[in-house]
Design brief:
- There is one protein chain.
- With about 300 residues, the protein is an alpha/beta fold.
- The protein has two domains: about 240 residues, Rossmann fold (3-Layer(aba) Sandwich), CATH 3.40.50; about 35 residues, no CATH class.
- It contains eight helices and eight strands; from the N terminus they run βαβαβαββααβαβαβα.
- Bound molecules: S-adenosylmethionine.
Length: about 300
């Protein structure tokens, strides 16, 4: 069993509270952290309703964010997913407080395309913010890995630009696509999507894949302290990264493990079809490998603070 940089098993989702398990991971050991925490009173799930006041949620967030920064490698990146709609203002406080303690790197706007119809007196919310933090050194970042293709019409229009005499060279350049901006248009998952596996806040693979490809390289260690249905693990496995996962709910872990196994099976089948060998590195975790259980933290008493 591979263990490195941590008492948690690599390529396994550990069952428990991230605040109890993160201290078991060595300092400066993880290249990339993808954290998609509870929104705070948006979903009707017990895990999203743990805090009575925004202040409690912000204090809790500060604790796991500080731990993640400790764990992050000096040249690593740390993505923190934000809130939707009526709780967006709480994420603004989270960003402000976090950026006073840690280094801001970027802010991504995720355009979910499909709106979240919850209010009559305002526009329908359809975007989420993702805060990106760095540690101390210039972060590893692979801009070339996430270029966005131009459509054929745009390519043909650009080719007409008389300033470029060498048309073949120009075409090769255009075919590479353009650099991705920090505005990401990725549709949120519809109920009928093949990707959907039953988690109420499952993120699209395309979204997480872009983070993994741009901010890590094969063999790097990726951490997700709120693994849910395993989207980060699946994309890490697909792109040959090692990963560490933490999740409070065993039902979601079972979902994620099934997904990982199915993805790996599909990959093997497709590789066999193409008659090429697949590297045997990715490991399918099984429920038998679950190693920790810590009960969820007791709810602290209500604190006065920011608007809930
Ligand atoms: C927004 S969801 C993550 C969804 C995930 N990105 C996906 O694509 O499936 C947040 C997850 O955090 C888990 N969670 C809540 N509190 C936690 C804690 N203290 N420690 C670890 N996991 C927790 C919830 O059970 C939930 O699955």
């Amino acid at each position: 069993m591979k263990t490195s940089a941590s008492k948690l098993q690599v390529n396994t989702i550990s069952l428990g509270d991230c605040l109890s398990l993160l201290p078991h991971i060595s300092s400066s050991s993880v290249q990339l952290i993808v954290a998609d925490p509870p929104y705070f009173n948006v979903l009707e799930e017990a895990w999203d309703q743990q805090w009575l006041q925004a202040r409690e949620y912000l204090d809790w967030s500060g604790r796991w964010i500080d731990e993640c920064i400790r764990i992050l490698k000096p040249d690593g990146l740390f993505y923190v997913f934000g809130q939707l709609g009526k709780r967006e203002h709480v994420f603004l406080h989270l960003m402000s407080e976090t950026c006073q303690r840690h280094q801001f790197h970027d802010q991504i706007i995720w355009d979910r395309v499909v709106g979240y119809n919850e209010r009559r007196d305002s526009f329908t919310p359809a975007c989420e913010m993702i805060l990106v933090l760095r540690k101390t050194a210039t972060p590893k970042f692979y801009k070339e890995a996430v270029r966005e293709p131009y459509d054929e019409e745009t390519i043909q229009a650009y080719l007409k630009d008389p300033r470029y005499k060498d048309k073949e060279r120009r075409l090769a350049h255009l075919r590479k696509g353009k650099f991705a901006t920090n505005l990401w248009r990725v549709p949120s998952l519809k109920g009928s999507s093949n990707e959907k596996c039953g988690h109420p806040s499952q993120k699209p693979e395309k979204l997480i894949e872009r983070i993994i490809l741009s901010s890590s390289s094969p063999g790097d260690l990726v951490l997700d302290p709120f693994m849910g249905s395993g989207t980060t693990a699946c994309m890490a496995q697909k792109h040959r990264r090692e990963w560490l996962g933490i999740e409070l709910d065993p039902t979601y872990i079972a979902m994620a493990e099934k997904r990982l196994a199915l993805n790996l099976q599909a990959e093997v089948e497709s590789s066999l079809k193409q008659n090429r060998k697949v590297s045997g590195r990715a490991k399918i975790p099984t429920t038998g490998q679950l190693q920790f259980f810590t009960p969820p933290e007791q709810k602290p008493a209500s604190l006065p603070g920011l608007p809930s």
